[in-house]
Predict the structure.
Amino acid sequence: MSTSGATLYGFAYGEHLDGLPPRSLGYRLLAPAAPEPWGGEVEALARRLQGAPYPDHWPPTDLFCSVLLADGRRLVALARYGLADHTPSSRRGGLELVGVVAPGDLDVASALTAYRWLQARRLQVESLHAFDGHFALADVLSSTASAPPPSDPVPVLPVRMWQDGALLFAATTPTEPDHRLGLLEQGAGRGWQWLPLVGSDFPLSTYAQRGPVVAWTPHLAGVALRVERKHEEEAGRKSRRPSRLLAAGLLLGLVVLPALNLWATLRRYQELGKSANAVDPLPAPEPPAVRTPANDDTRDRFAEALHDLLRERMGPREWAQAQDVFLARYERAAKAHPDLRLAETNQKGRLAVGAVGVLSRRGADRVEEAMKKALANKGFDAALVDIAAARVREQLLEDARREAP
């Protein structure tokens, strides 16, 4: 975007202190000193963010925040969570929200540079009132070195994806939202929004009507479920069409990495099969009636080893939730291929065979087909969907080629 003549309007929300020693008068909007038309909305946002449950064992942390205000302007802020107040008991749960109100078409790179400028300025000043004033966007961008956002190579999946354009993730560490800012580099459009930690009463659907939202909540099962349940009922509200580029970019970030992990799991299964055959080869297929106990023992040991490998790679939670699906897939596979049938007592082996059957349906071609089907008739440009699906398929095949001996 053009930075010529753009002005940033500073604000600060935090603990109001009075006297010496300082006495806490609660939290409120401390800057700007003069009323601004957007002041009430900024203070309401800060109070909502402060209402997010913050785990006691998490240290205080700074997180990036940027949303669109009702008048179309963009808020860019530094949210400081986990602060202790100045009451006699030094209660935790305090929050500072210091930032600027910028033009609505501020791009991701400029917003992240402004965020780093806010971090540096907060370290330099003692009073939050110092954020009152107007700042030239050109000066902010030129005085702060640009740097790529931190990233985490481990894939992350949303707690819930809503039809109204909001993605909710569960943060397992206090800094995880900032480590995932690379999601915003996936072709975010003008209406992108990023919310740090929110609680179950946060009005995500209100912001989603202004543009696509990526939001985070503390990794507490009760919190995540309450947030999902509350906003699932609001998903049908009419909202603006999400940014196609952001949706496709997030899709790449959320589908490619899990799919690559899946591909690696299949490769490990193939390697395990080769190893087992090399050490203790199975005999040629024979009718079950003439199979010897030793052969059955080899088959069972191999299936159980495969079970342990798949369960380790998929994780205990996903494995437990999918057992009924795996067993149903095993029955169909054993009916079509009798050599796959195992003893009734070998539950682990049956689960392993069923899991391989499920995973085998998730190859590169099937992932591409599933993406196209899932995004069809959802308001996205058909050519863009085809490009995103093809990119995922090419990445899966390239990863397979790299792993090939």
